[in-house]
Write a structure and sequence with these properties.
There is one protein chain. The protein has 420 residues and is mostly helical. It has two domains: 1-179, MFS general substrate transporter like domains (Growth Hormone, Chain: A), CATH 1.20.1250.20; 196-420, MFS general substrate transporter like domains (Growth Hormone, Chain: A). The chain has 16 helices and two strands. The protein has helices spanning 3-19, 25-31, 37-64, 68-87, 92-123, 128-152, 160-176, 192-195, 207-220, 225-235, 247-250, 252-299, 306-334, 340-369, 383-404, 411-419, and strands at residues 371-374, 377-381. A two-stranded antiparallel ribbon has the order 1-2. A hairpin with a 2-residue loop joins strand 1 and strand 2. Helix 1 packs antiparallel against helix 5 (92-123) and helix 1 (3-19) runs parallel beside helix 6. The protein is globular, with a radius of gyration of 21 Å.
Length: 420
């Protein structure tokens, strides 16, 4: 079997594990386990905690002591066990502990998967720029396939989705030991500060970079909100007779998967937008796309308003990619080559770490503020008000960013850099 096929299998399974529960778990916890909004938000905030702590630690281990593919496999085996433990959870504390453990070992596999892929492709004399993107896209396909699988089987409403993730993680964990060895370099003297991206903190002395990182954190708070509550929101329409049997309710996860499909398409549009509009405008497009993402959720429904929900899914690709990928490219261009890895780590920490933690707890508090509970069960929830609060937050960030962030775009410079 060719190395490309082997890496495609790895990337497919990598994101199949995540897709089996990321979009549907919030709905399951709310509908079946009767967790409150704040509890659901706190559980998803563990993603941010894991993103702050583990990538740096596993990076040091893989650089100095342990083959990356073996560390990758061990992480997935532990993650599979954690998902099995989560599948037995009936109370908040057990679910929180199980998902925290799972994410502590899953989040670093995102970067380890890239490390293993790059190493294997170089070992077989492949062209990274040409050969890696077609391999990586199978990760997104795996994520979408997992979403469809848990939806069509009805697993989205039960703990079975966690079994699917656990079994896939075990298969991937064992499979990873058959991959080409990615030995520690040992020659690279990476400090603890460097591994966590903290030696790039001096970038905060530059006003432009400080503003960029602060807004990255603020917008990072919005990145996982619809993943956390999207399925729970769509499932709430089941209580309204005219919507109970609609496609958007019965197959809510498939409807939400349009977001991931859109994401793959908007990635291709980024070079054009960056070349013609520059990073500030592209970031602003992302921020206002989040306004539309949340606003369309506020006014859409699975009936005649289904077009609003579908449009919201399409807008998601622009909202997510134009921020994440364009922001990463901006950091790459604006920092010295000697600290680029640390600067990228800092960007990841601000968005997927601090931003995700802030977003998880804040969104949970907002959901609970507009919810009424009795005897530990939900009585009513004002979803339109919730989504409009989130839309107003994204709008405020966008307006402030437009006035505060100063950056002059030179089209020819960007064009030359991309072709250089």
């Amino acid at each position: 079997m060719s190395i490309k096929i082997r890496l495609i299998i790895m990337n497919f399974l990598q994101f199949f594990v995540w897709g089996s529960w990321l979009i549907s778990l919030g709905g399951y916890m709310g509908r079946e386990l009767h967790f409150e909004g704040g509890e659901i938000g706190a559980i998803f905030a563990t993603m941010g905690i894991a993103s702050l702590i583990m990538p740096g630690i596993t990076g040091i281990i893989a650089d100095k002591w342990f083959n990356a593919e073996r560390l990758y496999g061990v992480c997935h085996l532990i993650g599979g066990a954690a998902l099995l433990y989560a599948s037995t959870a009936s109370d908040y504390n057990q679910m929180y502990l199980a998902m925290l453990l799972n994410l502590l070992v899953y989040m670093p596999t995102l970067s380890l998967a890239n490390t293993v892929s790059y190493s294997a492709l170089e070992r077989y004399n492949c062209d990274l720029i040409k050969d890696f993107p077609p391999i990586r896209v199978w990760g997104t396909i795996g994520f979408i396939c997992a979403m469809w699988a848990v939806d069509l089987t009805g697993f989205k409403n039960s703990s079975a989705q966690l079994y699917v993730g656990a079994v896939t993680a075990f298969i991937l964990g064992i499979y990873s030991f058959s991959l080409p060895p990615c030995k520690p370099t040992k020659s690279e003297k990476k400090s603890l500060l460097s591994a966590f991206g903290l030696d790039a903190l001096f970038l905060f002395k530059k006003k432009k970079m400080a503003i960029f990182f602060v807004f990255s954190m603020l917008l990072g708070a919005a990145l996982q909100i619809t993943n956390t509550y999207g399925d729970l929101f769509l499932g709430s329409f089941a209580e309204i007779p005219e919507f109970a049997d609609s496609f958007g309710v019965q197959h809510s996860v498939i409807l939400l998967s349009i977001s991931q499909m859109s994401e793959t398409l908007f990635i291709l549009a980024i070079p054009f937008f960056l070349r013609h509009f520059g990073i500030k405008q592209v970031m602003l497009i992302s921020m206002f796309a989040w306004v539309f993402r949340f606003g369309l959720f506020a006014y859409g429904d699975p009936g005649q308003g289904i077009w609003m929900l579908i449009l919201s899914m399409i807008v998601y690709g622009m909202a997510f990619d134009f921020f994440n990928i364009s922001g990463s490219l901006f950091v790459e261009q604006e920092t010295n080559s000697s600290i680029r890895a640390s600067a990228q780590g800092l960007f990841f920490m601000m968005t997927n770490g601090l931003g995700a933690i802030m977003g998880g707890y804040a969104s949970g508090a907002i959901v609970d503020f507009f919810s009424v509970y009795a005897d530990g069960k939900l009585v009513s929830r004002e979803w339109p008000d919730i989504w409009l609060i989130f839309a107003a937050y994204a709008l405020l960030i966008g307006v402030l960013f437009a006035f505060v962030f100063k950056y002059k775009h030179v089209a020819e410079k960007v064009k030359n850099e991309q072709h250089g």
